[in-house]
Specification:
- The structure holds two protein chains of two kinds.
- Chain A is an alpha/beta fold.
- Chain A has two domains: 298 residues, FAD/NAD(P)-binding domain (3-Layer(bba) Sandwich); 142 residues, no CATH class.
- Chain A is built from 13 helices and 16 strands.
- In chain A, strands 1, 2, 3, 4, 5, 6 and 16 form a seven-stranded mixed sheet that branches. A five-stranded antiparallel sheet of chain A has the order 9-10-11-8-12, covered by helices on one side. A two-stranded antiparallel ribbon of chain A has the order 7-13.
- The relative contact order of chain A is 0.19.
- Chain B is α+β, with helices and mostly antiparallel strands.
- Chain B folds into two domains: 293 residues, FAD/NAD(P)-binding domain (3-Layer(bba) Sandwich); 149 residues, no CATH class.
- In chain B, helix 6 crosses helix 8.
- The model of chain B has no long low-confidence stretch (mean pLDDT 95).
- The chains are: A alpha/beta, B alpha+beta.
- At the A-B interface, helix 3, helix 9 and strand 12 of A face helix 3, strand 8, helix 10 and strand 12 of B.
Chain lengths: 475, 484
C-alpha cells in the first residue's frame, strides 16, 4: 500500500478535540499530521454546530476560571478581532457563563493556527482502519480521492468523537443502549430577529421561560431570578433562551410544534455587533446509534423534517421573529452521544459531584454530570449532578489512555468516563485534546509509551501550564 | 464482505446531478439508492456553493426556454414558498432566477422522501465490483465499516468521475503543465449590506464598473457587438434601481488597486452574486473571490493544500469587502461553505464526445436528452481577471441552444454504468460543468437507468432506440425539441 507519510503524532479527526491536540502536539515539538474526513476543520464547532454550550462554562459557580489553554487563546484572538463576545459574567449567571464566538471566523482561525504551528493536514480523508504490530498501533489507513494510503505515526490520537480508531484497534468500549442514547440534532441559524420586540416580550413574561438552570447554579429563589431577568436590557446578557411555554403548548395542540424538543435558541455573534439566533436543539432524533450508518442516515433525514416544522413555528408565533430568515443550515447532524473508550481510569459521576481533584490532572470542568438530552419538550433530563461547593473537578490523564492498546491516546467525547460523567461538551473536548497532544509529543520525546507516561506526569503538567491550561487552585 | 443492500439503480454522489438522477430513477419505478459521502445532499448547490450561474441560463438569447424538468420543478416549489426570485420577465436580457441554497437543501431531502429514494449518507464510495465488463456494485466505507452496495445499473455522479475511472473507463484530464486547471473556490455570503448606497455608487460610477465587465463584453463575437453591449450596460448601470437584475457585480478597478497596494490577493476579483432569503432579503455571495491556482482535486495533497489556501484568500477578501466596497461598511460574514467547489477535474469518455463545433452549430441530435445554452469559450483562471476568454470560442449558433445526446452519458468499455454531472463525455472546450447541465444530465441518466432495468437491457443497448427515454423525460417536464 502507498504510504502517505510518516509522522511523530497522527491525530485522527479535525473536530474540536483534534485541532486542539494537533496544535498542542506541534507546540511540544512533534512532527504532527491531522487527518479529517471533511474539507474543513472544526467539527461540532462550525460544521455541525456550534452547540449551545460551545464557548460556555469556562468559569465555575464561584466565578473562578477553570478552563483556559487553547480555548482561552482562541477566544481571546477572536475577541480582539471583533469575532467574539467577552466572557459574560453577570451576577445571575454564576457558573453558567457564555463566551460566544463567531463559528465561521473560528473556522478561519483554526486553519491559520495550523499554518502557524506547522501542523500537516490531510483533509477529505476517511480513516478506515488501523495498522497494528502486536498491541502497538503503528498508523492508520485512509481512503480519499487518491485511493487507499497508510499514514504512519509513533503515537496516534483518536479524536473521531465516536472512538472509531480505538474500537478498530481493539480497545474496550462502552455504549449506552439505544433506548437511552441522547438525541442528535441539526443546527441552523437565523438572522433578522427584532431583538427589541423579543426582549419586551421576555421581560414582560418571564414566567413563560425556563430559568431553572440559572436557579440551580446561583441558588437564588425563582422570585428573585424573575425579578432580575426583568431588568435585562441587552440580548447578550442572556445566552440561552428556553421556554415560550404558552406558545409551545398552543403549537403542540395545533401540531405546529413537533414536540421532540422544547422551544428555544442560543446566540451567535457576528462582526459589528450583530446577533443571530442559533437553533441547536430544535430538531432531536432519539434512538439512533451513530456508528450504524443506516440509523445515522435516518437521523439526517428526520432532523431536516423537524427543522422545517420548527422554523415555521418560530416565524408564526415567536415575538420578534416575524421577519427573521434562515441564513445557515449545518451540513450534518451533531452527534451528541456515542461510545466511550475504556481507559486506565474511568471518571465517575461521584468524581464530578465531589469536585474531585486528581494527582494526574490535565484539566478541569465545572459542567454537571448526568445532564443528558432527551427527546420531548423537556429537552433535558432531570437529575444533573453539579460539582459540590460550586466548584469543579479534575480530569485525570489516565482517562485518555485506552486499555489494551499501546501508542494510542483518545481525546474528545470518547474519553474514559462512566455514562453520566460523559465529557462530551465542547470545552471538555478542547481540554482533553490539548492534553493528549502534549502527552503524545512528550512520550515520543522521552521514548516511552503514553501508558508509561502515567508514572510521572509532572513534565506533562508543566508543559500544559506553560500552554496556559488551568490545573490547580480552583474549588 | 457485508452487503448493505441490492437495488435497481445505485447513484454515487448526492450533488446536483445525483439528486436529479435519484428522483428521476425513482419516478420511473426503479428501486433507487443514492450514496453520498457527506451528511447533506446538494453538493455544489448548497454545501460548496451555490455557483453564480446556479439557477441561470435556462433560456437562450432569443428568450426561448431550453432547460426545464427537475431544475424548473425545484425552482417553482421554492418560489411558491418564498425562497426563490421569480423567473425573469424578459429572459433575453437577464436569466438569473436565484434560489435560497439552504431551503433548496431542505427541499431536496423532502423530495427524496416523497419519491422513496433510499439514502446512504456519510459513506465514501471507494471501489467498484465488476464481473467482466459489467459493473455490479460499489464498495463504500463508513462508520459501520466496509460494505458492498449492489445495483443493476450504477450512475457515477461523483463529479470527478471517481467511479468510472476506478471501473477502468478512459478519461481525459488537462495537462497541468500546459493549461491552467479551472481553480476551485470556497464561497462565502455577506449580510448587512446597504444596498441603496451601493446602487447610488453604481449609478455614479457606471464607466468604472464597465471596465470590470469588459471581459464579459469580449465574449460576444464581433467588435460591434462588444461596443453595443457596453453601451447597453452603461445605460443600465446609470439608471439601475434593482441590483439583482444584473445578477453579478464585479469590482475590477477596485481589485486592481487593492492588489497593487497589497490589500487584496491576486487570484480572483472582488465580486459577488445574490442569495435571496425569505421575506425579500438579499445577501451577497462571493463565489470567485478565492481561487486556488493549479489545484488538482484528484490529488489529495493538492486538494488539502487548496482548502488551506482558499481560506487564506477568503479572509483577505472579507476584510477588503468591508473596507472598500461601497455599502459593505457594516456587512458581515453570515455563511461559508464547508469545502472547495471543484471546477475542473476528469471528463469521462463515452460513446459520443461533445465538441465545441456542436455548440457553435447549435447542433441537434436524434438521441437528445436535454439542452444547454452555455456559450463556452470562457474559463476561470486564478488571476485578477477571474476569467480567461478563448477568442472565437464563445457563442451558440443562431443564438440558440445545443442538444445533449444520450451517448455522452454512456461510458466506454464498461456495462451497466452511466455518468452524469460535470464529468460527462465532452472535450474541454465544451465542458458541461454548469449546474443546469448537471441537473439535465442527472435527470436523463436516472430515467435511462430506470428504463434499462425495466426492459432488461444495458444502458448501451438503450442507445439503439431512445424514443421511450425521450417520452418519459418530456413527461417529467424536460425540454427536448422545438427551440433554436
Amino acid at each position: 500500500m502507498e504510504i502517505f507519510g510518516e509522522y511523530d503524532v497522527v491525530v485522527v479527526g479535525g473536530g474540536t478535540s483534534g485541532v486542539a491536540a494537533a496544535i498542542a502536539s506541534a507546540r511540544t515539538g512533534a512532527n504532527t499530521i491531522l487527518i479529517e474526513r471533511l474539507g474543513c476543520l472544526g467539527g461540532q464547532m462550525n460544521v455541525s454546530g456550534p452547540p449551545g454550550f460551545a464557548y460556555a462554562n469556562m468559569f465555575n459557580g464561584k466565578g473562578e476560571q477553570v478552563i483556559a489553554g487553547i480555548m482561552e487563546e482562541t477566544h481571546h484572538r477572536l475577541l480582539k478581532d471583533g469575532h467574539a463576545l467577552p466572557h459574560l459574567l453577570p451576577d445571575f449567571r454564576a457558573g453558567y457563563t457564555f463566551s460566544y464566538v463567531d463559528p465561521d471566523w473560528w473556522g478561519f482561525l483554526m486553519f491559520e493556527m495550523m499554518t502557524e504551528n506547522d501542523v500537516k493536514l490531510l483533509l477529505h480523508s476517511l480513516a478506515v482502519e488501523v495498522i497494528k504490530e502486536g498491541d502497538a498501533v503503528k498508523g492508520v489507513i485512509v481512503e480519499n480521492t487518491s485511493g487507499r494510503q497508510a499514514v504512519l505515526g509513533k503515537v496516534i490520537i483518536d479524536c473521531t468523537g465516536e472512538g472509531d480508531i480505538c474500537v478498530r484497534a481493539g480497545a474496550p468500549y462502552e455504549k449506552i443502549g439505544k433506548d437511552q442514547i441522547q438525541p442528535h440534532t441539526l443546527s441552523f441559524t437565523a438572522d433578522g430577529v427584532d431583538w427589541g420586540i423579543f426582549l419586551k416580550y421576555m421581560t414582560e413574561n418571564p414566567e413563560e421561560f425556563d430559568w431553572q438552570r440559572l436557579i440551580n447554579r446561583t441558588g437564588w429563589t425563582k422570585e428573585r431570578m424573575i425579578e432580575r431577568v426583568r431588568k435585562i436590557k441587552e440580548i447578550t446578557e442572556l445566552g440561552e433562551v428556553m421556554g415560550f411555554f404558552s406558545l409551545r403548548d398552543k403549537g403542540l395542540k395545533t401540531g405546529e410544534w413537533h414536540g421532540f424538543s422544547g422551544v428555544g435558541f442560543f446566540l451567535m455573534p457576528r462582526e459589528g455587533g450583530i446577533i443571530q439566533a442559533h437553533f441547536q436543539h430544535s430538531s432531536q432524533v432519539g434512538e439512533v446509534d451513530p456508528t450504524d450508518v443506516r440509523e445515522l442516515t435516518y437521523a439526517e433525514i428526520e432532523c431536516r423534517r423537524q427543522v422545517v416544522i420548527a422554523w415555521k413555528f418560530f416565524k408564526k408565533y415567536v415575538p420578534g421573529f416575524k421577519n427573521a430568515y434562515i441564513t445557515r443550515v449545518c451540513s450534518e447532524v451533531r452527534i451528541r452521544e456515542s461510545g466511550r473508550v475504556i481507559g486506565d481510569y474511568i471518571l465517575t459521576t461521584e468524581d464530578v459531584g465531589e469536585a474531585r481533584k486528581f494527582k494526574d490532572t490535565i484539566g478541569k470542568s465545572s459542567f454537571p454530570a448526568a445532564s443528558h438530552h432527551t427527546v420531548g419538550t423537556a429537552t433535558l433530563k432531570k437529575g444533573a449532578v453539579y460539582p459540590k461547593d460550586k466548584g469543579s473537578h479534575d480530569i485525570p490523564y489516565r482517562c485518555l489512555v485506552p486499555k489494551n492498546v499501546e501508542n494510542l491516546l483518545v481525546a474528545g467525547k470518547a474519553v474514559s468516563t462512566d455514562r453520566d460523567a460523559y465529557l462530551r461538551y465542547l470545552m471538555q473536548t478542547m481540554v482533553t485534546g490539548q492534553a493528549a497532544g502534549v502527552a503524545a509529543a512528550l512520550s515520543i520525546k522521552k521514548g516511552i509509551t503514553p501508558r508509561q507516561l502515567e508514572k510521572d506526569v509532572s513534565e506533562l503538567q508543566a508543559i500544559l501550564l506553560k500552554q496556559g491550561a488551568i490545573l490547580y487552585g480552583t474549588h | 464482505m457485508k452487503i448493505y443492500g441490492e437495488y435497481d439503480v445505485v447513484i454515487v454522489g448526492g450533488g446536483t446531478s445525483g439528486v436529479s438522477a435519484a428522483i428521476a430513477a425513482a419516478r420511473v419505478g426503479a428501486k433507487t439508492m443514492l450514496i453520498e459521502r457527506f451528511g447533506a445532499l446538494g453538493g455544489q448547490m448548497n454545501i460548496s456553493g451555490p455557483p453564480g450561474f446556479a439557477y441561470a441560463l435556462l433560456w437562450n438569447r432569443r428568450g426561448e426556454k431550453c432547460v426545464a424538468g427537475i431544475i424548473e420543478e425545484t425552482h417553482h416549489r421554492l418560489e411558491k414558498e418564498g425562497h426563490a426570485m421569480p423567473y425573469p420577465k424578459n429572459p433575453q436580457e437577464t436569466t438569473y432566477a436565484f434560489v435560497d441554497p439552504d431551503w433548496w437543501g431542505l427541499m431536496i431531502f423532502e423530495m427524496m422522501t416523497e419519491n422513496h429514494v433510499n439514502l446512504l449518507l456519510h459513506s465514501l464510495a471507494v471501489d467498484v465490483i465488476k464481473e467482466g465488463d459489467a459493473v455490479r456494485g460499489v464498495i463504500v466505507e463508513n462508520t459501520s465499516g466496509r460494505m458492498a452496495v449492489m445495483g443493476k445499473v450504477i450512475i457515477d455522479c461523483s463529479g470527478e468521475g471517481d467511479i468510472a475511472s476506478r471501473a477502468g473507463v478512459p478519461y481525459e484530464k488537462i495537462p497541468k503543465e500546459e493549461i491552467e486547471i479551472e481553480p476551485p473556490s470556497i464561497s462565502f455570503t455577506m449580510d448587512g449590506v446597504d444596498w441603496d448606497k451601493l446602487i447610488k455608487y453604481i449609478r455614479e460610477h457606471a464607466e468604472e464598473l464597465l471596465d470590470a465587465w469588459a471581459v464579459r463584453g469580449t465574449l460576444t463575437k464581433t467588435e460591434e457587438e462588444v461596443k453595443r453591449q457596453r453601451v447597453k450596460l452603461y445605460q443600465s448601470f446609470r439608471t439601475i434601481d434593482d441590483l439583482v437584475k444584473i445578477g453579478c457585480i464585479t469590482f475590477g478597478k477596485l481589485t486592481r488597486e487593492l492588489v497593487a497596494r497589497g490589500e487584496y490577493h491576486e487570484f480572483g476579483d472582488l465580486g459577488f452574486f445574490f442569495t435571496p432569503r425569505e421575506g425579500g432579503k438579499w445577501q451577497a455571495i462571493f463565489q470567485h473571490s478565492s481561487q486556488v491556482r493549479q489545484c488538482d482535486a484528484t490529488d489529495i495533497t493538492e486538494l488539502t493544500a487548496g482548502e488551506v489556501e482558499a481560506r487564506r484568500q477568503v479572509a483577505i477578501a472579507l476584510k477588503a469587502a468591508r473596507k472598500y466596497i461601497p455599502g459593505f461598511e457594516n456587512a458581515y460574514l453570515s455563511r461559508i461553505t464547508g469545502y472547495l467547489r471543484i471546477r475542473e477535474t476528469r471528463r469521462v469518455m463515452g460513446d459520443y464526445k461533445m465538441v465545441l463545433a456542436d455548440v457553435q452549430a447549435a447542433r441537434k441530435f436524434p438521441d437528445v436528452i436535454g439542452k444547454s445554452v452555455q456559450g463556452m469559450g470562457a474559463f476561470h483562471t486564478a488571476t485578477i481577471d477571474t476569467i480567461t476568454v478563448i477568442p472565437g470560442h464563445h457563442g451558440i449558433g443562431d443564438n440558440g441552444s445545443f442538444d445533449l445526446p444520450y451517448r455522452i452519458l454512456v461510458p466506454q468499455k464498461v456495462e451497466n454504468m452511466l455518468i452524469a454531472g460535470k464529468h460527462v463525455s465532452a472535450e474541454r472546450n465544451c465542458y458541461l460543468r454548469f449546474l443546469p447541465d448537471t441537473m439535465v444530465t442527472g435527470q436523463a441518466a436516472g430515467v435511462a437507468a430506470g428504463l434499462c432495468v425495466k426492459r432488461g437491457i444495458t444502458p448501451r443497448q438503450l442507445e439503439k432506440d431512445v424514443s421511450e427515454l425521450q417520452d418519459i423525460l418530456q413527461k417529467q417536464g424536460a425540454i427536448l425539441f422545438g427551440t433554436h
